[in-house]
Write a structure and sequence with these properties.
Layout: H1 2-8, E1 15-18, H2 24-31, E2 36-39, H3 42-46, E3 52-54, E4 60-62, H4 64-70, E5 79-85, H5 87-90, H6 93-106, E6 107-118, E7 128-133, E8 139-144, H7 167-173, E9 179-184, E10 189-195
Parallel strand pairs: 1-2, 1-5, 5-6
Antiparallel strand pairs: 3-4, 6-10, 7-8, 9-10
């Protein structure tokens, strides 16, 4: 985060996309520095029961085409930086690859994306966090528990850890990007910084 703090301290205005749980402090963090920030909670959007459909084998799945028509509808090459947080670990598997593909298209060449991945199986009750940037280059994490959140009471499934990606899976997920760096952090989380 200290390395990224230098980027965000730049005098050049950046266009940032935060696709995790909405954080007022993140919005303040960027707007006070003269950057533009767009915030969109893709996990919450993915819980919309209207997305549930059946595939060719009759199995329940989510309609990724409809999801992308309603979410991430930005022009190509629009963003300098994307915060993906731990989205891939918690999002339904049918949406992960299409979302990463759309992020690639809405990022500028040379744009960066930060994502977090669990390093080992943490169980279905692994906490899902809202992340807050701070001036000290630290990251504050607040646990969100949608099972106790009335907004999610009608959701078709609880918000649980869907999978744990290994390094090879992560590299494959971001194969269209020009570079990828892995950083091991605390709490069994792997930080991944990719460049478009």
């Amino acid at each position: 985060m200290a390395e990224l703090a230098r980027v965000f301290g730049s005098d050049d205005p950046l266009c940032v996309l935060d696709i995790g749980a909405t954080s007022a402090s993140n919005i303040r963090f960027f707007t006070q520095r003269g950057h533009r920030i767009y915030s969109q909670d893709l996990i919450e959007a993915s819980l919309d029961p209207a997305l549930i459909t059946r595939d060719e084998q009759g199995q329940l799945t989510l309609d990724s085409k409809s999801f992308l028509e309603e979410n991430l509808a930005y022009p190509a090459g629009h963003f300098d930086f994307v915060f993906c947080w731990n989205l891939a670990d918690y999002m339904d598997e049918t949406l992960v690859r299409p979302v990463i593909g759309r992020l690639w298209s809405v990022m500028k060449p040379g744009g960066q994306l930060l994502a977090f991945f669990h390093t080992r199986e943490a169980g279905p009750d692994a906490p899902y966090y809202r992340y807050h940037l701070s001036d000290s280059a630290d990251l504050e994490m607040h646990v969100l528990n949608p099972r106790r959140d009335a907004r999610h009471s009608s959701a078709s499934r609880p918000l649980t850890l869907q999978r744990v990606f290994n390094n090879r899976h992560i590299e494959n997920l971001f194969r269209d990007f020009s570079s990828i760096k892995f950083f091991l952090s605390r709490d069994n989380i792997r930080e991944v910084l990719v460049v478009r």
